[in-house]
Amino acid sequence: MKTDISGLNKLFENRVRLGVMSILIVNNSCDFNDLKESLGVTDGNLASHLKALEENNVIMVNKQFIGRKPNTSYSITESGSLLFRSHINALENLINS
Question: 76 with 23: CB under 8 angstroms?
């Protein structure tokens, strides 16, 4: 039996990126510290995965100050949402085949 994995997106194969996208697909935005805490990863690890997602235009970065403290939040782009949903559909098809 041949298994079709052509719909899977390599960008989302990593568990951290999959987690980031899963969080952002159901939330309007999420800040760095909340993502880090939710995923249980280090600053550097999360930052490198966020950078990869940003470079591929699947997430947007919003830097602002809240009071006097810098705050970086992330949200999913429209194209990122489409790519991620397509990846999830491919995973579901793989599981159901």
Answer: no
Q: Measured between alpha carbons, how far is 33 from 85 in angstroms, rounded to an integer?
A: 25
pLDDT lower than 50: segments of the chain: none
Is residue 3 one of the residues assigned to a domain? no
Q: Is the dihedral angle over the CA atoms 27, 22, 75, 58 positive or is it negative?
A: negative
What single-letter amino acid sits at 91? L
pLDDT tens per residue across span 8-28: 899 999 999 999 999 999 998
6 lies in a domain?
A: no
DSSP state of 10: G
Is 2 a domain residue? no
Measured CA to CA, the distance from residue 40 to residue 8 in angstroms comes to: 25
Domain count, the chain: 1
